[in-house]
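Pasting as-is:
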Amino acid sequence: MQSLANAWNMKASSGSGLCPTWIVIVSSLIFSPFFCTKELPGALLEHPLGSSRNHISGGRAKPFAMVGQCTTIGHLPPVQGQMTLMILLSARDLTRQFDAEPVFAGLGLEIRAGDRVGLVGPNGSGKTTLLNILAGLDEPDTGVIDTPRTVRVGLLEQQPNLADERSLWDEAAGGLQWLYELQRESETLAEQIGQESSKTLLTRYDTVHATLEQHSGFQIDHRVAEVLEGLGFEAVDFHRPLTTFSGGQQARASLARLLLTDPDVMLLDEPTNHLDIAATEWLESFLVRARPAMILVSHDRFFLDKVVTRVLELRPDRLDSYSGNFSAYRRQRSERQERLGKQARKQQDFVARTEDFIRRNQYGQKHKQAADRIRKLERLGDIEQIDNFSVPPMTFGEPARSGEIVIEAIEISKGFAEPLFEDLTLRVERGQRLGILGPNGSGKTTLLKTLLGDLQPDQGSVRLGHNVEPAYFDQGIDQIPDDLDLVEAVRPPNNPDVTPGQLRNLLARFGLTGDIVLQHFGHCSGGEQSKTALARLAALNANLLILDEPTNHLDLWARDGLERALCEFAGTVLFVTHDRFFIDQIATHVLVIEEDRCRIYDGNYSQYLAFHENNEADTSQPQPVASNPTASNARPVLEPAETDISQRTRQFPYRKAVEIEAEISEAELRKEELEEQMADPDIHRDTDRMTQLVGSYEIVQDELEMLMAHWEESIELN
C-alpha cells in the first residue's frame, strides 16, 4: 500500500491531477483480490490514453493485501504495442525451500508470446510454489525473475476466498472496470461535444472511441455473459452475491475474471477443477484462441493435449522442456529415456574395458597408454538419466464372485426442488465398468447414492444382485475421521484382526510409505487423503466399487495406477468423473444424464462422442434399442439402424461382446498360424499334412464368420 501512497504523492506534487480513469482503476483494485499481477523494479505504469504515470522504485513492487488476499496496480489495461517483446517472462536459478527442506533448486525458464506451457510433476514437487513465485506472491530464496516493464502477469489460485457481497457479474467484470469507465467518459464527451464542440474534446473523443473499439469495449456485457455461460453459470445466477455460491462456483467466478482481464501472461493453477465436461471443453476452445501466453498446471490429460504447445517437467534440480502437447511429451520423454539409457550402458561398457586395460598394463610396457586412459576416465562426465516418476502399484484384490446381475433399477425417479432423473430403468451386469456423465448439478452423485441404497428413489425400485458387496468412495472423503492415523484409517471394520504390518503393506500399494502412514488423516494433503480412501476401499474386498470423483487430488501418475488397477479388477465399477481420459481408459459403458433423461451408450467417452458426431452428420434419427430386455431407457447403437432393432430376435445365445472379441482374436491367431504353415514349401510335399491343414483352415474360417455374426448381434441387441 505504501508504494501506491508514494505514487499518489508523487503525482500530486507534480501539479497535475489524476484522470478519472486512473481513479477508477485504483479504486477497483482495492475490491479485486482474486488474481494477482506484478511489476518489476522500475516499472513504468502507463494508461493507454493518457496522462497518468507512476514510477515504482526500490526493488520489486510488493503486492498489497486486503483481507488476506493479494492484488497490485498491475490491473492497468494493456499498453499499445507492448507485445512486440518476444520474451514476456524469464527466470534464472530459482531456489525455494521450506523448513530447510528444498522444494526445487536452480530452475530456469523463458515464456514467450504465444506460448501455452503445461507444467507437470508429481504432487508436492512445487508446481504451485513456482507459479506463486512467478506471480510475485512468494519470494525465491535465490534467483532472478525478469519481465518487461509493461507486461502484466495474472494468477488463478486453486482456492480463492471470495467473502464479500459483490455479485457474480461484478466479480467477473471487475477486470474490465477501465473499459466501463471509458464507456462513461465517451458518453460524457458526446454530450459535451453536442453542446460545445472544440478540437480538444473531439481529439479526446476520437482517442477514447478508438481504444474502446480496439479492446471490444462496446461489447463488454456480451463478453462477460459469454464467459460466465461458458463456465457453466446461468443468467439467473449473474446478480447473486458471491457469498451464496459454493467454493467450486467461486473458483469459476475467479477464473472468469482472469479470462476477461486478459493479462499478457496467465498462470493457471488447476483451472479445470470444479468444471464439468462441457465447461472444460469450452475453456479449451477459449484458451486456444486467447492472446495471452500461459503456464497451466493441470492433471487433465485431454485438456493438456488440446491446449498446450510445450510441456515443462518439474524436477528437483531443473525444468525439462518438451515440444508439443502432453501425448508428445510422454512419447519424447520415453524416447529420450531409452536413448540416454543406451548411452549410459555404452559408457559403462567403455569404462569396464578401460579399467581392465589399466589393471593389466599399469606397470607393463603399455604403462603410458594406461596413464593416458586414466586421464580419459577422469575427464569422462556422467550421462544424465531420467528417472521414472513413481506409479503406485494399486490393486483391489480378488473379490468374491457376484451374481450376473449386480444392480437392477426399475423406473426410478429422484429429485429435490426439481426432478434430476425420471423413469430410469437400468441393469448393471457383473464385470461392467459404467461411467456416469452429466453437467454439474444434474444428479450424478444422487444417482450413485440411489443405486447404492443410501437414498430412496421417489418412485421405482432398486435391487442389488446375489452376493453383491458394495463399497463407496465419496468425493468429499468424509467417511474417515480426521483424528485417525492412516494405518487405522484403512482398517476394515469387517476384519478387525488384520495386523498393522498388513495395513502398512496395503498403504504402500497406494503410494503411502514411511512416516506419512503415522500422520493423522486430517493433516494429510488432498492427494494423500484420496490414496488413503482408495486403500480403505481395497481393504473392504468389495466386488462392487462405486466411485464419486476418484481422481480428485491425484496426480497424473497416481491416475495411471488407478486406471490400471480398475481395469484389472474382477468386479463391477460404477463411477462419476469429469476426467475424459480416465473414462476412456476405464469405461465399458457410459450413462449420460441429459435434460432429466438418462441414455446408455456402449463403449467409452471417445466412442460416445463419435456416435454423436455421426448422429449430427446424419439428419435421420437412429433407432434406439433397449439396454436390456426389461429396460425402458434408450441405448443408441453405433450405426443408424434401417429397421427397428428392438423387434429383432436373437440367433445366438446371450454373451458379452468383450468375451466374443477375445475368441475372435484367438481364432484369427490360429488362422495366421495355419496360413504360415501352409506357405511352407516342405508342407506342400506332404499331401496328407497339407490336406489336414486345409481342413483345419476351413473350420477356423467358418468359426470366425460365426463369431463375427455373434459379435455384431451382441453389439446391436445387448
